[in-house]
Structures are given as structure tokens and as C-alpha cells.
Amino acid sequence: MIYEYPDPNQPVRQGDIFVGLPRVDFSLRGIPLVTGEGEQVLVHWREIAGRDEPVSAVLGLRPVAAIVATQDCDALHARDVTLCEIQPFREVEGKAAKTTSAKSWKNVLTQHARINLKWFYLPPDRQIGFAEKMAVDFLVTLRVPRSELEELRDLRTGRLNPVADEHFRERISEFYRRYPYDEWYPLNQEELDAYRREYPDIEPFPWQRTG
Questions:
Q1: Domains of the chain, with CATH numbers?
Q2: CA dihedral 52, 58, 62, 67 (to 10 degrees)
Q3: What does the DSSP assignment read for 17-79?
Q4: How many helices (H) and strands (E) are present in the chain, helices listed first?
């Protein structure tokens, strides 16, 4: 497939895939703060943000798969390394939720890959640890200390091969330099109604509102 399986002693580089890294889950509306008496109280982050001293809190952790997004030179020397979370493809790309046929998958993985810059496709591979189609979600990142990630190279299951790595590097660049805009802004009322049947949560612009 599109993967290589580096020796565990090789340094961390862009395109390395790790399985089992910690992701922190929390809500800013209710941080489980630990008091001096050892009790937990839910506090809105706004009440904590202005404090000068650090606080203790209990936060949820869960293991996730992730890929190194940091460029090679920084992955060797920087204090921290940034990774993007890897999730099941159907969860990242909504248009694939009910995709079954090879023809439909071909369209999603080629045509939509050129349109939607928010993900990077990773095919299944048992040795890597992917039993199904996966995707790098550029919107979800993790930051970990570089030296400590080096100590966890036993969690690195593989890396992208040169062809895929070059594509991955370009996709990251495209994602961060893309011009974000609400694509429905020029639609007339009938076109907007059709658009909202597929995307009901969008907010029309003032010139699109009637009544």
C-alpha cells in the first residue's frame, strides 16, 4: 500500500503514524477543578483564565491514532511536535457515510479529495493498525513534547511512503493557505433552498433572507 515500516531507531519525521497517543477531552463550560481539600468542582474556564497561578484539574484522556504534521527539520529539533488526529473516513467525510460500491468510493477518494482540503485519505492496512478506510483530520491537532514522542517510537506503526508523503505535505500547505469562505453566499433563493436541504445548519446572508 502507501506505507513504509521504519526501524524503531529511526528519528521521528513528518508522515509518521502513531497509534495510541493521548488526546485530552474537556469542556470550557465545566472544568473539573481540584480544590485544596481534594474535592472536584465544575468551574467555567472564564473563572480560571484570569488567575496568575496554575490550577489542578481532572481531564479525560483517550488514545487516538495520529500522524506527524511537523516538518522534518522541526521534528528533529523543536521543543514540540504537532500531529493531526486520524479518524474513520466516514466520520471525517460526510459524503462517504453510505458509500458502498467501488465506483462511489473511487469518486469520493479522487474527486472529493480535490475539493475538500480538510482531510487526507489513508487506506486500510492491518500492519499499520487500520481495519477500515481512515482519514487525517487537519482540523484536529495534538501537541506533544518532541523528546517524549521519541521515547514512544514503539507506538509508531509506520509512515507514508515517498509518493504519499509528498502529497501529504502539499495537502497540509493547501489546507492552511486556502481562502475560507461560505460557498452559498451567491445563491438565489431557489438555489439556497436546495443547498439547505443538504446542509440545514448553514446561516443565510442578509441579502438571502426573505420577509
A1: 3-20+63-180 (2.30.30.110), 183-211 (no CATH)
A2: 10
A3: EEEEEEEEE--TT-EEEEPTTS-EEEE-HHHHHT-SS---B--EEEEEEEEE-S-HHHHHH-S
A4: 7, 9
pLDDT, tens digit (0-9, with 9 covering 90-100), for 172-197: 999 888 887 898 999 999 999 999 99
Residue 164 to residues 45, 59, 84, 128, 167, Cα–Cα distance (Å) = 40, 35, 16, 15, 5
> What distance in Å separates the CA atoms of residue 30 and residue 41, rounded to the nearest whole number?
9
Contacts of 150 (CB under 8 A, 6+ apart): 11, 12
Cell of 104: 462511489
**pTM of the full predicted structure?**
0.84
Strand, helix or coil for residue 205:
coil
State the residue for C-alpha cell 451567491: 186
3-state class (DSSP) for residue 97? coil
pLDDT digits (tens, 9 = 90+) for 69-105: 999 999 999 999 999 999 999 999 887 878 888 888 8
For residue 43, the cross-strand partners are 31
